[in-house]
Design brief:
about 425 residues; alpha/beta; Rossmann fold; Tyrosyl-Transfer RNA Synthetase; Structural Genomics Hypothetical 15.5 Kd Protein In mrcA-pckA Intergenic Region, Chain A; 3 domains; six-stranded mixed sheet; five-stranded mixed sheet; 19 helices; 15 strands; globular
């Protein structure tokens, strides 16, 4: 890419590695120079929290606001009832309206950490697409919107073609999703003056659909910009770890575990992640990312502290670093470790060590916990566990015990009052 942007926003996107593609660099650049540009990203409410895989999108909106423009976070209260089929091998389970509203409530907590909401020119808006989708008249929608879509073209989209090529069912409900997403862009432009949609590069086809529809119906010029689909240097999908999704809400992933995820970043990813997920100057990101040997660990701690501060606050980041220092360098028990509290009635005459490992989240099943023990991967108070039949009684929990799975995952088990 040899384009030289005039606007601060596109310059930041290019310099920090956010930019995969844009429908019209010059047109968007000119719009950003001319005044405040509202831009949106849609988030379907399929869970009570977003995970780290969505963080590149959230940071895109944060930079949009920091460079003087207006972010719109579009909650998919309507589209979640359908489900995005993009690059999925199967159909999403359908959620009830109550479940969707509950999930939106959880997701809102994340955005409040990254964006300033309000009534000012560059204050963020949170919109729910149920505002226009729930009241649609099906026949009117088919006549006014459906006529602009070619089924031949829709079948040619890679997200649809891949499902059909594998002879996997694609319901008519899911097939409609791309029309609804295009309609979202049209309505956001009509109601809120939204000029640009952001999304991962797998959303390119959906974004182009919205631009084309808005041009046909309203004759307005709008734009699309995509971010790269991130994987770690070892090929893993961003947002996943050995023990599941890395959620952004503290009640679904503790700040300590969140901090630890970033602290465990592969050496080769440190510089890139600093540019994408922190606001440190690019030169400093490059300097830290170029460190080698033991020095790169200091860069990883800086990365973990910066990202955790944005998501959970400076106090949570400091507590996580302190706990990590206690656990890893002193061999002690940190104050901020994930904690399992059990009552005397939970324990009864005794509870097996295998159950404790599962209940504390260090293994997903008893079978996995037993394998961890047999492979010398489990420890009790830093002593290797060798007996999968070990029973723990209430007396053993008179003071908290520390369980470990491998070198990096730990939890406390304690007796509740």
């Amino acid at each position: 890419m040899t384009y030289h942007p005039k606007s601060d926003f596109i310059a930041v996107m290019m310099e920090r590695g956010f930019l995969a593609d844009c429908t019209d660099y010059q047109g968007l650049d000119d719009a950003l120079i001319a005044g405040v540009v509202p831009g949106y990203i849609g988030f379907d409410a399929t869970a009570k929290s977003l995970h780290v895989g969505s963080l590149i999108q959230i940071m895109t909106l944060r930079w949009l606001q920091k460079t003087g423009h207006k972010p719109i976070t579009l909650m998919g209260g309507g589209t979640t009832k359908v489900g995005d089929p993009s690059f999925r091998a199967d159909e999403r389970p359908l959620l009830t309206p109550a479940q969707i509203d509950d999930n939106i409530g959880g997701i809102k907590q994340v955005f409040a950490k990254y964006l300033e909401y309000g009534d000012g020119p560059s204050d963020a808006l949170m919109i729910n697409n149920a505002e226009w989708l729930d009241g649609l008249n099906y026949l009117d929608f088919l006549r006014d919107i459906g006529r602009h879509f070619s089924v031949n073209r829709m079948l040619a989209f890679e997200s649809v073609k891949s499902r059909l090529d594998r002879e996997q069912s694609l319901s008519f409900l899911e097939f409609n999703y791309m029309i609804l997403q295009a309609y979202d862009f049209l309505e956001l432009n009509r109601r809120y003056g939204c000029r640009v949609q952001f999304g991962g590069s797998d959303q390119w086809g959906n974004i182009v659909n919205g631009i084309d529809l808005t041009r046909r119906v309203l004759d307005h010029q709008i734009f699309g910009m995509t971010t790269p689909l991130l994987t770690t240097s070892d090929g893993k999908k961003m947002g996943k770890s050995a023990d599941g999704a890395v959620w952004l809400n503290a009640d679904m992933r503790s700040p300590y575990e969140f901090w630890q995820f970033w602290r465990n970043t592969t050496d080769a990813d440190v510089g890139r992640f600093l540019k994408l997920y922190t606001e440190l100057p690019v030169d400093e990101c490059d300097r830290l990312g170029a460190l080698e040997g033991a020095e790169i660990n200091a860069a990883k701690i800086r990365l973990a502290n910066e990202v955790t501060t944005l998501c959970h606050g400076a106090a949570a980041a400091a507590a996580a670093e302190s706990t990590s220092h206690d656990v890893f360098e002193k061999g002690g028990v940190g104050d901020d470790l994930p904690t399992l509290s059990l009552s005397a009635s939970d324990i009864g005459d005794g509870i097996s060590i295998v159950q404790l490992i599962v209940k504390s989240g260090l293994a997903k099943s008893g079978k996995e916990a037993k394998r961890l023990i047999s492979e010398n991967g489990a420890r009790l108070d830093d002593t290797p566990l060798t007996n999968a039949g070990l029973m723990i009684d209430a007396g053993a929990l008179s003071s908290p015990i520390k369980l470990s799975a491998g070198k990096k995952r730990h939890a406390l088990v304690q007796l509740s009052d």
